[in-house]
Write a structure and sequence with these properties.
By secondary structure, this protein is α+β, with helices and mostly antiparallel strands. The protein is built from two helices and four strands. It is a peripheral membrane protein.
Amino acid sequence: MMDSSTDSPSRQPEATNPFSSVPIEITISVGKARPLIRDLLKLGKDAVLPLDKRVDDPVELYVGDRLIARGELEELEGDQKGQLAVRLTEVADLKDGIA
């Protein structure tokens, strides 16, 4: 039987690592557009720029240029209604460096 006062090995490094509370910025990519420059120069207010993805396609989460996860966009409910969020569907194995 494991002593309840001892943290599990997977949790201990988190508590002792000084970087565990440093915030990072995650970029969510919903798609890309590849207009010709002449078309880009014509864009103005209310112009629509089509992306290479559909509304239901997964979005990609990046830290820097590294893909760390994929997910689905959804809208939060309750007090945060209208705010976008991402529900993760795939997560890279960051511990072993496998994407």
